[in-house]
Amino acid sequence: MKPLSSLEQLAEALRRLPGVGPKSAQRMAYHMLQHDREGAAMLGRAFNQAVEKIQHCTSCNTFTENPLCETCMDGERDATLLCVVETPSDQLMIEQTLTYKGLYFVLMGRLSPLDGVGPKDIHLEKLVKRASDGVVAEVVLATNFTNEGEATAHYISETMKARGLKVSRLARGVPVGGELEYVDAGTIARAMLDRRAT
Amino acid sequence: MKPLSSLEQLAEALRRLPGVGPKSAQRMAYHMLQHDREGAAMLGRAFNQAVEKIQHCTSCNTFTENPLCETCMDGERDATLLCVVETPSDQLMIEQTLTYKGLYFVLMGRLSPLDGVGPKDIHLEKLVKRASDGVVAEVVLATNFTNEGEATAHYISETMKARGLKVSRLARGVPVGGELEYVDAGTIARAMLDRRAT
Q: Which of the four pLDDT bands, split at 50, 70 and 90, describes residue B180?
């Protein structure tokens, strides 16, 4: 077998990206070399730099270039609250609401036994250690409201309660602006059960 | 404004890939850093190497790491035939049919005035020079049978004929295995006009 040419190597490497098959990979390689060499050079640099610099925050497990991420280093935050999210994007969404001033723990995934993702893959040991620092008083579970996210929340909840920590979960209910006619029955059922005195 | 972190730079660079928007770019960046660092390092190397090494063949204009590509260096090929294709993938498809033993010219695009792609962008001057080498006797147009491909073929055909070269075009007609009931009327009309004595 002939060794792969630089072009074939590039197409092969592009297939490692999620959602990119052989045809797209080839199209991407051709496009970048034909129409955007500057972008190709940027991508080369960006990948090398990211691999070299990006680590996990020793405290909250998110991506960071320093041992501690910016959020964890922020002394203004309420260290008694620890919000558990699946991904850095989820953390960003919560930050944008400006309703939460505590710290975070980013699982970088969710429990998914069918895909072979167990407690170890979502860094549960690190989370337990983090939550048991004596300062954290409440763990706020903000995993997704999908089956896997709910299972993850349940599992973490049990683990935390066994250690005597207070655990809460984001409220479920009718979305803001939601019309009952178009909201699914499961959501309305949950909103009815969780109804609040006004 | 804060300078972008390595992660943001990577997501930004990934948006340069065709068909990748901001959400996909972020998802790709997270995925590669979380689950496939080896792939990320491969991508970094592959992009750098491709940008550094890949040039256009001085004769046929395809991608190559040497001044002349392998096909153009192959002395066994029929240098009197020059097949014009839009992309290296098209060339590869024709090669796989084993029906053509001549040389190629790869336009690396197609005429598309609406997108601002003119004769210069598809290297027509280089093609004219290549076809006028005194050896090429017939130019075989194998651009796509799309509106743009047909327009490109027509334009090249006129240019070549003005220089006294023989020009041909791949035959149009009913695809092999095609059932008339499911073939579009335009194709059947063309197959009827181009019908051949058996």
A: confident
Put simply, whether the predicted model's pTM sits higher than 0.90 gets the answer no
Q: Using CA atoms in the order A64, A65, A67, A68, what is the torsion angle rounded to 10 degrees?
A: -50
**Which residues in A lie closer than 8 A to residue B4 (C-beta atoms)?**
none
Q: What residues in chain A have per-residue pLDDT under 50?
A: none
Q: Is A82 on the interface with B (CB under 8 A)?
A: no
B7 touches chain A (CB under 8 A): yes
Q: What angle do CA A51, A54, A58 make, to 5 degrees?
A: 140
Comparing C-alpha atoms, which of B53, B69, B70, B51 is closest to residue B61?
B69
- Chain B residues 85-114 with a CB less than 8 Å from chain A: 87-89, 108-109
